TrEMBL record:
It comes from Kushneria phyllosphaerae. Coiled coil: none annotated. SUPFAM superfamilies: P-loop containing nucleoside triphosphate hydrolases. Belongs to the gluconokinase GntK/GntV family. This is Gluconokinase. Pfam families: SKI.
């Protein structure tokens, strides 16, 4: 971590790390948060029981299912902003409308988009015995509205884990 990043980090940052299931939001998010000295929160922990039950049964969530969950995450971002604390929250953020909810009241929200192909992510999920089915992964890709460069920083996850971490940290360091 560079000294320049240390100084800027004192100004709180709110970072959304997003991507389809299996893109690495939790593992990459935790590692980047540790390297940059901010708190990491797994957004999935804030799903209400009804959402968890649906996902466990392999039923995709609707926009209505996600609304309260996204608002709870937006509240977390707002709380950290008020307290001048840095935080990174992992959340799929598949649609622009979801990201707009998360960004509410925080135009300085930084979005890191973990971008990878269906085949790359499916292979990684199969290697780690992920519970998420290939059909549900397909549904996530079908739902994904890829953010443009004006909305998010795209991170190519086809590289090694360490390279992806380094790229995330470098991109955050480059922000002013």
């Amino acid at each position: 971590m560079t000294k320049q990043f240390d100084q800027r980090h004192r100004q709180s940052r709110r970072i959304l790390i997003m991507g389809v299931s299996g893109s690495g939001k939790s593992t990459i998010g935790e590692a980047v948060a540790e390297k940059t000295g901010c708190e990491y929160i797994d957004g999935d922990q804030y799903h209400p029981p009804a959402n968890i039950e649906k996902m466990t049964k392999g039923v995709p969530l609707t926009d209505d299912d996600r609304q309260g969950w996204l608002e709870a995450l937006a509240d977390l971002f707002a709380q950290h902003r008020r307290e001048n604390k840095s935080v990174m929250i992992g959340c799929s953020g598949l649609k622009k409308s979801y990201r707009d909810i998360l960004r509410q009241g925080d135009p300085e929200l930084i979005i890191l988009f973990l971008d990878g192909s269906y085949d790359t992510i499916l292979q990684r999920m199969e290697e780690r015995q992920h519970f998420f089915s290939p059909q549900m992964l397909r549904t996530q890709f079908d739902t994904l509205q890829t953010p443009g460069s004006d909305e998010a920083i795209s991170i190519d996850i086809s590289k090694s884990f360490d390279s992806v971490i380094d790229q995330c940290v470098s991109e955050l360091e480059a922000l002013d």
